[in-house]
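Continuing the batch. This is chain 6 of the set; chains 1 through 5 are on the previous pages. Same settings as before, nothing changed between runs. Recording input and output for traceability.
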Amino acid sequence: MQLEEGLTRLRALGFGEADAQELWAHFDSAERRGKQGHGHARIPWLEGLDGYDPAAEPQLLEEEEGFQRWHGGGALGYLVLGRVVRAQLERPPAHARLVVCERTFPTGMLGHQVRRLAEGGLVALLTATSPRRLGHPEGGPKLAGTNPLAIGIPSSGGGPIVADVSMGAITWGDVVAGLAQEDDLVPFGGEQAHKAFALAIGLQLLVDALVRDEGHGAALLVARPEADPVPALRELARGVRLPGDS
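Output for chain 6:
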C-alpha cells in the first residue's frame, strides 16, 4: 500500500489529517521493519473494526509528581499512546513517571512508541493488554493477552536500543495479515513456554491492577537516564545486530 492510498482510506474512516498521518507513520514503520502484522494490513482491519470514535480526544485525568492517568475516551489506542508519548517529550519527568492509560486499544507496535521516547532522550518501558488469547501451555481457558513488553534506551552514539517482545509465538497481527492461523497463537518458547505464559500473566495483572475503568489498558514507565550504557554495549557487541537496529 502506498502513502496516498493509506491516507485516503484513513481519512475516509473519519480521522483528521494529523491523526491519519500519525496512524500511517505507525503502520508504515512497522511494515518497513518487517512487522507486517502491525503494518499496512491494519488499515483494512480498522475498516472493519467497531467501537472507536475517530474524533475522540484522549484525556489526562490525573497528574501529580511521578504519576499520570489518561483515558482513551473512545479514541484508538494508537492515538492515545501517541498523545501520551508527546506529552512526556514536552514535559519530561524530573526523575521518573508512571503513566497509566485506560481504555487504550489497539496499541499496535509498542516499539514505535518507546523508540520515540528514546530518540527524545528518555528511558521507557511500556506494556499493554489485549483480548485474552493465550492459555496455559498445557491447555485450558485463554487467560492473558499477547501483552508485549517494549523497552527503549537512548544513546549518545548511534540509534537507541529498542526491545519489543510479544509473549506469543506469533502476534495477533500475524493472523490479521494472513501470515498465521489463530491456533498458532500460543506462548512462545516451546518446552520453555511456561516462562512466556508467566510473563503474560504478570503483565496482564500489572495493568489490570492499575486501571480503574475495566478494559484494555497500558502502563508506561518513563525516566531520565542517569548513564549512557548503549555505546559501550555496541562496542562490546562488535557489529552484532542489537534489538531495534534496522
